[in-house]
Design brief:
- This protein is of the alpha+beta class.
- The protein has a domain of about 100 residues.
- It is built from one helix and four strands.
- Strands 1-2-3-4 form a four-stranded antiparallel β-sheet, with no helix packed on it.
- A hairpin with a 5-residue loop joins strand 1 and strand 2.
- The chain starts with a helix and ends in a 12-residue tail after the last strand.
- The N terminus is likely disordered.
Length: about 150
Amino acid sequence: MKRLVLVAAMLGVCLSAIGAPALIPIPAIPIPSFPLQNPGPAFIGSTAVAQPVGSFTVPQNPFMAPNGKSNIHNDAYMTDAYAWAGPLGKNIGVNSTWFGLEECASITFDSQGRIVALCGSLDGAKLRVLHPTTLATLSIFPCRRAWCGRGRRR
C-alpha cells in the first residue's frame, strides 16, 4: 500500500510539473521533521475554556466567498478575526501536506468546503484544490500571468 501511495504521489508531482490537472487525488505527504529537531512534549496544560470577544459585523463583499472563508486575511476588510472557535486543547492533532519548494500562503475555501490554495515556487504559481480532511491534492491549475493577477507585461 505504501508503494502505491508513493507511486501516486510521484505521478502527481510529474503531472503537476508539466501543468496537467490531477487525474486522481494525490495523497498528502506530511511535512518532514528534521532528525535532530526536538518536537517537544505532546501537550502541556489543560483544556482551555472558550472566552469569545465581541466585534462589529463585517459587511459581506458580494463578489467574494462568505466572510471567514474568502481570502488570506478572512474577509474583504482583512480583519483576521473569525466567528468560530479556535483549538481549545481537547483531542488536538496536526495534519500537513508537503509540496517541496512550493509555498501556499493564500488559502481559502470553495462552495463545497474544499481548500483552494494559491501556491508559488521557482517555476511559477499554481492553484491547488485540496481535500479538507485528508489534504490530498484533488486538482492543480497552473497560473499564467493574466489568470492569477500579476497583470500583463507591457
